[in-house]
Design brief:
There is one protein chain. The chain has about 190 residues and is mainly α. The chain is built from eleven helices and no strands. Helix 1 crosses helix 2, helix 1 packs across helix 3 and helix 2 crosses helix 3.
């Protein structure tokens, strides 16, 4: 399994090899391009030396913010997103022994349970949790019963709705087309 989300080999390798990096990328995936969001964990690692929940949770907040604001910024809203990443990491340390993968591996959970666990994380609403569950099922080897149903509509086979479906530049273009069509439909409905 190798993820191909960002177009940057080093960033994609980190996402593939480090479950926390993947989870943080998903957290950052709002109000920025998907590639920017999912490249964020590599910038964090390069600037702080850490992609470890305990290290990030205990990192000096001002220093962590400085790492986020360094050019190029990790996110277009560095202050709020730096705080959200640290809050997420604190929750992982407190509730999951700092192990992001425990969300989908501890106790052999089914799709509905993983969705519930994801929705319990700070910064993960229903849609973000479903998209991440679909990403786990489609590309990260999660095989818990009912994951497609729990992640609907993002878990649908052959769909191009989200980051869960990006495996190549072509699939990225299809996801962008879908998002553009959804925005146009929402605008027309107003």
């Amino acid at each position: 399994m190798a993820l191909h989300i960002t177009g940057d080999t080093a960033a994609d390798e980190l996402l593939t090899d480090n479950p926390l990096a993947l989870l943080v990328g998903m957290l950052l995936d709002q109000q920025v391009a998907m590639e920017t969001a999912f490249a964020g964990p590599l910038k964090i690692a390069q600037r702080t030396g850490a992609v470890d929940a305990a290290a990030i949770a205990s990192y000096d907040p001002e220093g962590f913010l400085a790492a986020f604001t360094e050019t190029p910024a990790v996110h277009r809203f560095p202050g709020s997103m730096a705080a959200r990443v640290q809050t997420l990491c604190r929750a992982l340390v407190d509730d999951w022994d700092g192990d992001a993968s425990a969300l989908w591996t501890r106790g052999d959970p089914d799709g509905a349970e993983v969705l519930r666990r994801l929705q319990g994380l700070p910064g993960f609403g229903a849609q973000k949790a479903k998209i991440f569950l679909a990403l786990l099922g489609k590309q990260y080897g999660f095989t818990g019963a009912g994951w497609r149903e729990a992640s609907a509509p993002y878990g649908e086979d052959g769909s191009y709705r989200s980051v869960a479906d990006i495996v190549s530049p072509e699939s990225l273009a299809k996801v962008r087309e879908h998002k553009k069509a959804m925005k146009a439909a929402a605008k027309a409905a107003k």
